[in-house]
């Protein structure tokens, strides 16, 4: 219960940082950090597929409303939320994923870093492919995807570091 | 019956996922720049205070540069005023025969640069006589964008840094025409394509909006030629431009309500008459 309230507080803080800070600061046209995906990455293990759909849709909707994009964030975030379970199974044993629950950490997921990188890369790929919907400026799209993914990964790890250091218990 | 309920229980989650995903794709595919700017306008109501806070902090660091630009602008306008005062009164009167062009000075509240369709939020709205379609220029008169949506106190402008925006433009010196557009990527680089191979293009030549440009008053400077190259068929030039307006550092803008642009837009909206009727009319 305590971990759940910590997770909700974590989601609120991440959304505030994304909406008020990251969406307003323009580093470069090649960099668009989508750090809010950390909310999906850190959703407690054992969450039902329906719960993941609700979380993914709500998160995508909030980001669409604040970024002025009609449906783009829902497309990317919902897909990642829905396919999180198979991605988790790819990097951890069934016992770890469906076992005692709790937020994913290095202790619970054997290849935790691979899982985080896969989630961020897939989310960014879906987002930027749908954003451009054309290969006319492929070089620009590719560079934007690579740089944005790297920056997003940095911010995601920053949030994970803060969140897991505040967690109590395993 | 039990089997049916069991089947529905088993498949409703993937179906729900597919349904929401397809709905989002449909919404995204049917979104126009107008609907996106409406959404952005709504979100600005929610997060406007944070954007304004960043702008206020940022504006303190650019005060010195703003003062220099304003002083230069005052000097330029005073010299122009002096020239007009020396003109014959009847010439001035005939110049004023045109409907007046309205200028509104405004500040940028938020300016995105990291999207393929970028938007600018301006701190003036309907109450300040801002209306949809007004051109957005820098204080020096360089092209920045055009207003796509207004609320009472704010306006949203589509930035010139939008890959879907194509501006009818020409070379100031050679007068050869073409299309100016942003190719994505560097915020200082623009392209000027479909220019005849017979055009005399030199590095540093100015590219400006044409008389029938739908977005900017005629003569509005877009950028300067950095390089040129012929297309594969060796028929047309595509020039790489250095954008005149530095959108990464812009704070103040001037909104221009130009009656000529309205006429162009109105003409473009009118249906094209069939060829037969034009032949009959000529006979």
Overview of this protein structure:
The complex is a heterodimer of chains A (170) and B (283). Chain A is built from eight helices and no strands. Chain A is an all-alpha fold and 170 residues long. The two termini of chain A are 14 Å apart. Chain B is of the alpha+beta class and 283 residues long. Chain B has two domains: 2-61, no CATH class; 101-283, Rod shape-determining protein MreC, domain 1 (Thrombin, subunit H, Beta Barrel), CATH 2.40.10. Chain B contains six helices and twelve strands. Chain B has a six-stranded antiparallel β-barrel. The chains are: A mainly alpha (170), B alpha+beta (283). At the A-B interface, α1, α3, α4, α7 and α8 of A face α1 and α2 of B.
List the helices and strands and how they pair.
The complex is a heterodimer of chains A (170) and B (283).
Chain A: H1 2-22, H2 38-41, H3 49-67, H4 72-82, H5 84-91, H6 94-98, H7 112-132, H8 138-166
Chain B: H1 2-30, H2 33-61, H3 63-85, H4 89-95, E1 102-111, E2 117-122, E3 135-137, E4 143-150, E5 155-162, E6 166-171, E7 177-181, E8 189-196, E9 206-209, E10 221-230, E11 236-243, E12 252-257, H5 259-269, H6 275-282
Antiparallel strand pairs in B: 1-2, 1-12, 2-5, 3-4, 3-12, 4-5, 6-7, 6-9, 7-8, 8-11, 9-10, 10-11
Features:
heterodimer; A: 170 residues; mainly alpha; B: 283 residues; alpha+beta; Thrombin, subunit H; 2 domains; 6-stranded antiparallel barrel; 12 strands; 38% helix; globular; disordered C terminus
Question: Could you provide a short overview of the structure?
Answer:
Chain A is an all-alpha fold and about 170 residues long. Chain A has 8 helices and no strands. With about 280 residues, chain B is α+β, with helices and mostly antiparallel strands.
């Amino acid at each position: 219960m305590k971990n759940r309230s910590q997770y909700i507080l974590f989601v609120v803080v991440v959304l505030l940082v994304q909406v008020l800070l990251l969406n307003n600061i323009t580093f470069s046209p090649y960099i668009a950090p989508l750090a809010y995906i950390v909310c999906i990455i850190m959703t407690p293990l054992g969450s039902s597929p329906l719960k993941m759909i609700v979380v993914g849709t709500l998160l995508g909707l909030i980001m669409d409303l604040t970024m002025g994009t009609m449906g783009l964030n829902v497309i990317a975030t919902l897909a990642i939320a829905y396919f999180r379970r198979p991605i988790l199974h790819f990097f951890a044993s069934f016992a770890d994923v469906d076992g005692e629950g709790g937020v994913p950490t290095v202790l619970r997921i054997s290849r935790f870093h691979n899982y985080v990188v896969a989630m961020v890369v897939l989310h960014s790929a879906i987002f930027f492919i749908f954003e451009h919907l054309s290969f006319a400026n492929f070089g620009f799209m590719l560079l934007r995807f690579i740089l944005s993914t790297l920056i997003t990964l940095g911010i995601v790890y920053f949030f994970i570091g803060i969140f897991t250091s505040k967690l109590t218990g395993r | 019956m039990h089997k049916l309920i069991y089947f529905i229980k088993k498949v409703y989650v993937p179906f729900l996922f597919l349904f929401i995903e397809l709905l989002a794709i449909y919404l995204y595919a049917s979104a126009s720049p107008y609907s996106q700017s409406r959404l952005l306008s709504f979100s600005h109501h929610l997060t406007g205070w944070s954007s304004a806070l960043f702008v206020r902090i940022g504006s303190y660091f650019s005060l010195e540069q703003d003062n220099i630009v304003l002083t230069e602008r005052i000097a330029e306008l005073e010299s122009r005023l002096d020239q007009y005062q020396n003109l014959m009164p009847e010439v001035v009167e005939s110049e004023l025969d045109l409907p007046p062009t309205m200028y509104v000075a405004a500040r940028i509240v938020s300016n995105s640069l990291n999207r393929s369709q970028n938007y600018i939020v301006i701190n003036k709205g309907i109450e300040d006589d801002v209306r949809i379609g007004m051109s957005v220029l820098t204080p020096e008169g360089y092209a920045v964008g055009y207003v796509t949506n207004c609320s009472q106190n704010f306006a949203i402008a589509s930035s010139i840094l939008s890959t879907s925006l194509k501006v009818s433009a020409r070379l100031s010196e050679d007068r050869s025409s073409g299309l100016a557009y942003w190719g994505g990527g560097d915020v200082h680089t623009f392209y000027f394509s479909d220019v005849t191979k017979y055009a005399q293009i030199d590095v540093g030549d100015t590219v400006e909006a044409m008389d029938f440009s739908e977005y900017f008053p005629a003569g509005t400077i877009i950028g300067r030629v950095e390089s040129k190259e012929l297309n594969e068929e060796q028929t047309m030039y595509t020039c790489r431009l250095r954008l005149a307006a530095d959108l990464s550092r812009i704070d103040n803008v001037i909104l221009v309500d130009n009656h000529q642009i309205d006429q162009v837009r109105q003409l473009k909206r009118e249906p094209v008459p069939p060829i037969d009727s034009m032949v009959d009319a000529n006979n």
